[in-house]
Design a protein that fits this description.
Elements (H helix, E strand, L loop, with lengths): L9 H12 L2 E7 L8 E8 L8 E6 L3 H21 L7 H9 L3 H9 L17 H13 L7 E4 L10 E4 L14 H10 L22
Antiparallel strand pairs: 1-2, 2-3, 4-5
Length: 213
């Protein structure tokens, strides 16, 4: 868990202040692994309503500031669309279940985990062009044994918008039910000496893109 006061990026601090003004509590976690691509997870909840569901967001980018903002704004978006009920792939039964959920125990457990990660020394490794960024990202995943990328062009000429889907066999998805492959297990073993003895078990652990848990 990141110590928010060590974040030296002004845009991130501005977003944090806006959340404080709205009385939302932000917990930010550094999820960067062996690929060395900055990855962050944001957990967000209303300080005045601790018995409601939490929202989560993830962000990844070669520039840590962008990764943080992406994670935080996705969590904000998840909270907003949950309140508005404007998401067409979440049905009424799921919204009702979310409203009836009690996150008090989960929030207390999260808050009891101390913030220990100092991010004041993080530096951007982003390049000046998209092409160079993509090349660098491919090098980083190649360095951890990922040798294949599947790229699907989903663009439609009549829309005039470029759309790609990329699958990297061997990397893990963000869904909690995705089983970890051998590379992730090896990395996790190395982290055990630094891990807390007691781990928080979230019953509602399915992360929805721009959604809650």
């Amino acid at each position: 868990r990141v110590r928010l006061e060590t974040i030296r990026f002004s845009k991130v601090q501005q977003v944090i202040e806006q959340l404080k003004w709205a009385r939302f509590q932000l917990l930010l976690y550094d999820c960067t692994i062996d690929t060395e691509v900055p990855v962050f997870m944001a957990t967000l909840y209303d300080q005045t309503m601790r018995h409601t569901r939490l929202s989560q967001g993830y962000g990844a980018h070669l520039e840590p500031e962008v990764a943080m903002i992406r994670a935080i704004t996705e969590a904000v978006q998840g909270s907003t669309i949950g309140i508005a009920g404007s998401r067409d792939d979440i049905f009424f039964s799921q919204l009702k279940q979310g409203k009836q959920s009690d996150s008090e125990q989960t929030i207390t457990a999260l808050e009891n985990q101390p913030a220990t990660v100092d991010v004041s020394q993080l530096e951007s490794v982003a390049t000046s062009t998209l092409e160079e960024d993509v090349t660098l990202l491919m090098e980083k995943i190649r360095n951890v044994g990922i040798t294949q990328l599947l790229v699907f062009d989903l663009s439609k000429e009549d829309l005039g918008v470029s759309v790609l889907r990329v699958i990297a066999p061997g990397l893990e998805g963000y869904f909690s039910h995705v089983a970890s492959v051998q590379r992730a297990k090896i990395f996790a073993e190395k982290q055990k000496p630094h891990a807390r003895k007691s781990l928080l078990s979230l019953k509602q652990s399915l992360h929805l893109p721009a959604g809650g848990i």
